[in-house]
């Protein structure tokens, strides 16, 4: 509903696991209604990402991540990057 009201949204950043609706369910709805909006998935658990087929067309960023890893994932998602496994966090500077 927010996307229907705010067409200027450039990127959806969503956790894979959320209450009521998973990130992949959200992404499927976004793609159905607004196919031009890219999706960046975030997860903190190795097994949480589920079936990689559900993540196709989106980037996956694993927590904890650095600001640099987040910037790279956003850039890749906005550039039309496809799911490639994950962006691994560098040691030391996890983003909050």
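^ Assign residues to that structure.
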């Amino acid at each position: 509903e927010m996307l229907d009201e705010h067409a200027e949204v450039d990127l959806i950043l969503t956790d894979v696991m959320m209450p009521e609706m998973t990130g992949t369910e959200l992404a499927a709805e976004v793609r159905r209604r607004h196919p031009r909006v890219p999706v960046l998935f975030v997860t903190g658990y190795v097994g949480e990402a589920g079936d990689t087929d559900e993540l196709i067309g989106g980037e996956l960023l694993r927590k904890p991540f650095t600001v640099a890893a987040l910037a790279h994932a956003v850039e890749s998602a906005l550039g039309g990057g496809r799911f490639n496994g994950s962006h691994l966090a560098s040691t030391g500077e996890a983003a909050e």
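The chain is about 30% helix and 15% strand.
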